[in-house]
Amino acid sequence: MEPTERRPRPERAPVRYSRRLGERICQRLAAGEAWSRIAGKRGLPAHATLYRWRDRHPEFAEALKLAREAQAECWAERALAVAEASDAATLNSDKLRVSTLLWHAARAAPARYGDRAGGREPEARGPGRIIVEVRDFVPVTLADGRVVAREVLPDGRTADDDEP
Predict the structure, then answer these.
(1) The CATH number of domain 19-117 is 3.40.50.300
(2) Does pLDDT of 55 surpass 90?
(3) Which of 22, 31, 134, 158 has its CA 20 to 30 A from that of 14?
Protein backbone atom coordinates (compact mmCIF):
# COMPACT_ATOMS: atom_id res chain seq x y z
CA MET A 1 0.00 0.00 0.00
CA GLU A 2 1.34 3.44 -0.95
CA PRO A 3 2.17 5.77 1.98
CA THR A 4 -0.32 8.36 0.73
CA GLU A 5 -3.21 5.90 0.57
CA ARG A 6 -5.54 5.81 3.52
CA ARG A 7 -6.97 2.65 4.86
CA PRO A 8 -10.72 2.72 5.13
CA ARG A 9 -11.96 3.03 8.67
CA PRO A 10 -13.85 0.03 9.92
CA GLU A 11 -17.56 0.69 10.23
CA ARG A 12 -18.69 1.08 13.82
CA ALA A 13 -22.17 0.34 14.97
CA PRO A 14 -23.89 3.55 16.03
CA VAL A 15 -24.12 4.05 19.77
CA ARG A 16 -27.64 4.79 20.99
CA TYR A 17 -28.36 7.13 23.85
CA SER A 18 -29.50 5.69 27.15
CA ARG A 19 -29.74 7.30 30.55
CA ARG A 20 -27.26 4.75 31.90
CA LEU A 21 -24.71 5.51 29.17
CA GLY A 22 -25.20 9.23 29.73
CA GLU A 23 -24.47 8.77 33.43
CA ARG A 24 -21.33 6.77 32.63
CA ILE A 25 -20.08 9.52 30.33
CA CYS A 26 -20.78 12.20 32.93
CA GLN A 27 -19.00 10.21 35.64
CA ARG A 28 -15.88 9.98 33.51
CA LEU A 29 -15.99 13.67 32.63
CA ALA A 30 -16.53 14.63 36.29
CA ALA A 31 -13.46 12.56 37.18
CA GLY A 32 -11.38 14.84 34.96
CA GLU A 33 -11.15 12.81 31.76
CA ALA A 34 -11.17 14.83 28.56
CA TRP A 35 -13.96 13.88 26.19
CA SER A 36 -11.61 14.01 23.21
CA ARG A 37 -9.59 11.18 24.76
CA ILE A 38 -12.52 8.86 25.45
CA ALA A 39 -14.85 9.58 22.53
CA GLY A 40 -15.50 6.63 20.25
CA LYS A 41 -13.79 4.10 22.51
CA ARG A 42 -15.25 1.08 24.31
CA GLY A 43 -18.86 1.59 23.37
CA LEU A 44 -18.86 5.35 23.73
CA PRO A 45 -20.19 7.62 21.00
CA ALA A 46 -18.10 9.66 18.61
CA HIS A 47 -17.16 13.20 19.59
CA ALA A 48 -19.93 14.94 17.64
CA THR A 49 -22.58 12.56 18.98
CA LEU A 50 -22.12 13.90 22.52
CA TYR A 51 -23.29 17.32 21.36
CA ARG A 52 -26.23 15.90 19.45
CA TRP A 53 -27.31 14.03 22.57
CA ARG A 54 -26.92 17.20 24.61
CA ASP A 55 -29.26 19.04 22.21
CA ARG A 56 -31.84 16.21 22.05
CA HIS A 57 -31.96 15.07 25.68
CA PRO A 58 -32.50 17.86 28.25
CA GLU A 59 -31.72 15.58 31.21
CA PHE A 60 -28.39 14.69 29.62
CA ALA A 61 -27.67 18.37 28.92
CA GLU A 62 -28.17 19.20 32.61
CA ALA A 63 -26.07 16.24 33.76
CA LEU A 64 -23.36 17.19 31.27
CA LYS A 65 -23.31 20.76 32.58
CA LEU A 66 -22.82 19.52 36.17
CA ALA A 67 -20.17 17.04 35.03
CA ARG A 68 -18.28 19.82 33.24
CA GLU A 69 -18.29 21.91 36.42
CA ALA A 70 -16.90 18.96 38.39
CA GLN A 71 -14.37 18.36 35.62
CA ALA A 72 -13.25 21.99 35.87
CA GLU A 73 -12.77 21.64 39.61
CA CYS A 74 -10.74 18.48 39.04
CA TRP A 75 -8.53 20.31 36.52
CA ALA A 76 -8.06 23.25 38.89
CA GLU A 77 -7.04 20.86 41.67
CA ARG A 78 -4.58 19.18 39.30
CA ALA A 79 -3.13 22.59 38.48
CA LEU A 80 -2.64 23.25 42.18
CA ALA A 81 -0.94 19.88 42.65
CA VAL A 82 1.40 20.55 39.73
CA ALA A 83 2.24 24.00 41.07
CA GLU A 84 2.92 22.66 44.56
CA ALA A 85 5.18 19.89 43.24
CA SER A 86 7.10 22.22 40.92
CA ASP A 87 10.79 22.81 41.39
CA ALA A 88 13.52 24.68 39.52
CA ALA A 89 14.10 21.78 37.12
CA THR A 90 10.45 21.48 36.09
CA LEU A 91 9.34 25.09 36.39
CA ASN A 92 8.89 25.89 32.68
CA SER A 93 6.99 22.72 31.79
CA ASP A 94 4.94 23.02 34.98
CA LYS A 95 3.93 26.58 34.06
CA LEU A 96 2.58 25.26 30.77
CA ARG A 97 0.70 22.42 32.47
CA VAL A 98 -0.81 24.74 35.09
CA SER A 99 -1.91 27.37 32.55
CA THR A 100 -3.38 24.71 30.25
CA LEU A 101 -5.33 23.07 33.07
CA LEU A 102 -6.63 26.44 34.26
CA TRP A 103 -7.55 27.48 30.72
CA HIS A 104 -9.61 24.32 30.29
CA ALA A 105 -11.17 24.77 33.74
CA ALA A 106 -12.23 28.30 32.76
CA ARG A 107 -13.88 26.99 29.58
CA ALA A 108 -15.65 24.15 31.36
CA ALA A 109 -16.92 26.32 34.25
CA PRO A 110 -16.65 30.00 33.27
CA ALA A 111 -18.73 31.21 36.22
CA ARG A 112 -16.22 29.72 38.65
CA TYR A 113 -12.89 29.84 36.80
CA GLY A 114 -13.47 32.26 33.92
CA ASP A 115 -12.46 35.90 33.51
CA ARG A 116 -15.38 37.21 35.57
CA ALA A 117 -14.97 34.71 38.42
CA GLY A 118 -14.21 36.20 41.81
CA GLY A 119 -15.23 39.69 40.77
CA ARG A 120 -12.52 40.07 38.15
CA GLU A 121 -13.54 41.92 35.06
CA PRO A 122 -12.23 40.78 31.69
CA GLU A 123 -10.08 43.06 29.62
CA ALA A 124 -12.08 45.43 27.47
CA ARG A 125 -13.02 43.89 24.17
CA GLY A 126 -14.88 45.06 21.14
CA PRO A 127 -15.12 48.43 19.48
CA GLY A 128 -13.89 51.42 21.37
CA ARG A 129 -13.03 55.00 20.61
CA ILE A 130 -9.46 55.74 19.65
CA ILE A 131 -8.31 59.30 19.09
CA VAL A 132 -5.17 59.75 17.04
CA GLU A 133 -3.41 63.10 17.05
CA VAL A 134 -0.74 63.57 14.40
CA ARG A 135 2.00 66.01 15.26
CA ASP A 136 4.92 67.11 13.12
CA PHE A 137 8.41 67.87 14.40
CA VAL A 138 11.46 69.30 12.67
CA PRO A 139 15.09 69.41 13.78
CA VAL A 140 16.36 72.87 14.77
CA THR A 141 20.02 73.75 15.41
CA LEU A 142 20.47 76.11 18.34
CA ALA A 143 23.15 78.84 18.61
CA ASP A 144 25.33 76.58 20.77
CA GLY A 145 25.27 73.84 18.10
CA ARG A 146 22.79 71.50 19.82
CA VAL A 147 20.06 70.00 17.65
CA VAL A 148 16.59 69.84 19.19
CA ALA A 149 13.15 68.92 17.89
CA ARG A 150 10.52 71.62 17.53
CA GLU A 151 6.86 70.99 16.87
CA VAL A 152 5.41 72.41 13.67
CA LEU A 153 2.06 73.98 14.48
CA PRO A 154 -0.92 73.77 12.10
CA ASP A 155 -0.26 77.33 10.83
CA GLY A 156 3.32 76.39 9.84
CA ARG A 157 5.15 78.10 12.72
CA THR A 158 7.34 76.12 15.08
CA ALA A 159 6.41 76.02 18.74
CA ASP A 160 9.22 78.40 19.74
CA ASP A 161 8.72 81.06 16.99
CA ASP A 162 7.01 83.39 19.49
CA GLU A 163 9.73 82.99 22.12
CA PRO A 164 12.42 85.74 22.34
Answers:
(1) no
(2) yes
(3) 31
Kindly report the length of the chain: 164
- Over residues 49-77, mean pLDDT: 93
Q: What are phi and psi of 158, to 5 degrees?
A: -90, 160
Instruction: Give the model confidence (pLDDT) of 120-142 as tens digits.
Output: 555 555 667 777 787 888 898 99
Position 164 confidence tier, pLDDT thresholds 50, 70, 90: very low
